[in-house]
User: Fold these one by one.
Assistant:
Number 1:
Amino acid sequence: MKHIKYPGHFFVVSAPSGAGKTSLVSTLIQQDPSIQVSVSHTTRTKRPGETDGQHYFFVSNKTFDAMIEADAFIEHANVFGNHYGTSRNTVLDLVNSGMDVVLEIDWQGAEQIRASWQESASLTSIFILPPNLESLVDRLKKRGQDDESTIEKRIANATIEIAHFNEFDYSIVNDNFEQATNELSEIISSVRRGEKPIPRDVRPLAAQLLSGHLD
Ligand code: 5GP
């Protein structure tokens, strides 16, 4: 993030697939016009209902590689065999319009952002956990966006993602959607007020999720 001078707040939100992160974040931005999500670039195939430039910028491997070469990403990672990245220009456009920015990225991207972050800018990272593994599997199946083998890959990768919850400033458990949205909104309001609320201790839940039992 060397070239970005940012007056507002940055929020990195990560979660295992199926924890409800995208729904939480879209509800949040509907309620709060001064926060925007940075639209990422990806090489994955567009799902039904997705729009280029709105959900992602869908690009070829060749374009993605050229963007890496041109140092166009502030972070990028391979997730489930596809490339995802946050473009510097996308973030700069949001920053320059005076917005607070949410990056919905995976733990690898969050790690890269933390490593290159300048202390002069405000960065808060938030991890979304499911209340149990069953709800995660249920959500993945019900949303009907992926085939069986992709769903299995996402379930297997969920524990890899969850294993990094501890690197985040805050964790939210998405058991009750409204409550989780309120918690997310409250963290953001506190950060804007310059406060640091005490993080919720989710270690017992994370340990249970990481034990991998579907009971
Ligand atoms: P999906 O394909 O379900 O939209 O996203 C799969 C994963 O890629 C999610 O964990 C999501 O957070 C992550 N992801 C989406 N955009 C980015 C990005 O720009 N950078 C990184 N590192 N991960 C991303």
Number 2:
Amino acid sequence: MMKTVFIRTFGCQMNVHDSEKMLGVLQKDGYFETHDPRKADLIIFNTCGIRQKAEQKFYSELGKTKSYKKRRPEMKVAVAGCIAQHEGGNLFTRAPYVDFVFGPQNIHMLHDIVSRRNRSLALEDNPDIAKEDLPVKRGDEVKAWVTIMYGCNNYCSYCVVPYTRGRERSRSSENICAEIKELAEQGYKEITLLGQNVNSYRSDINFPGLLRRLERVGGIERIRFVTSHPGDLSDELMDAIAELTKVCEHIHLPLQSGSNNVLRLMNRRYTYEEYMKKVLRLRDKVQGIAITSDIIAGFPGETEEDHIHTVKALKEIEFDGIFAFKFSSRPGTRAEEMKGHLSKEVKSERLQQILEIQEEITEKKNRSLEGTTHEILIEGESVTDKGKLTGRTRTNKIVNIPKVESEKGTVLHVEITRGRQHSLEGKVIKE
Ligand code: 5AD
Ligand code: SF4
């Protein structure tokens, strides 16, 4: 019998990819994806607990399923992901219409979980990594995500991830290579290696070693990776990025704060000066590398002076782009217990300032690209303008070009004609 599933994903790329795995597992079970939750036999919320905002959004959407279920009592509702892992059985009390709760490390059990008649809870702590090689129903035909490591051992004091995704575990390089070879055979061109801290990947080889091995997989044209911890960014990795032609010239390297006091409270294990030194080395070794970052505004105890250090850092480093967030106190983390939590107003004001400064820098950087040439990988029609195609430079910048006869997945050479705040415009110079 045909069954349908609706998956709502919150949070990071890791979660988006986990949803692809859930779909892969369920497809084997005869499920088809639907985009209408009211018609689904199974609704899965793949949740994120990183900030309160994402959590609130999830609870408000979950609330709506109560009425769907009233109309169709046979419908099943599952909560997965990081909030599921954190809240566990409390979710059944809070929302009695929830049938299944399972954590990010239990996707391999999905077949078993959804076939149960009764409410069930699956939260595993230290799973056997072999079970995590799951069938995947990918959302794109050109770009694919590949998880190389699970969990995180860093314990940044603000972060829930070590508590929801468990200790760090690396997949074997053989396994990763096999998956990527298969993707290449299916026509994938770009691979993004995923992990909470990819630089600390370690199996029979380390992360630079893995990149060297993957460089040899024919058919794949671009290799990206997220996320990198500045503390684990070695010279060896910088050299690999510089030498390997498929590894793109972009790194997402979260700074979080420009103040050493705050960095210490965050347990980031580096100073601003050490971070800056690595940025300079990277820029020296890898010509034209784009560096993006994450910043948290208003960490507990952050003084006006600390905030000014962050502003100065942004001006000094000139990131290609940042994601900036107001500090959000998460249950169970060390930051939750710290003194000096700031008001919403102070956090908002600091965030606003950070965003405004970065906007100027991003636009200035994008404008400076006018007249330069880049290789872009076509991702399809532009979402905002049907007369245009969208692609990305190796440095991960979006370029819109007037439509040409070119398929998704082809590489074009373009000249940048205009740099804007969030994207670039270009024209084809060579196909
Ligand atoms: N509050 C605000 N931002 C957070 N991040 C992680 N935890 C929190 C939190 N409690 C941000 C960090 C991280 C990004 C993925 O989310 O900047 O790099
Ligand atoms: Fe991803 Fe972290 Fe959110 Fe979990 S809590 S989904 S790991 S961003």
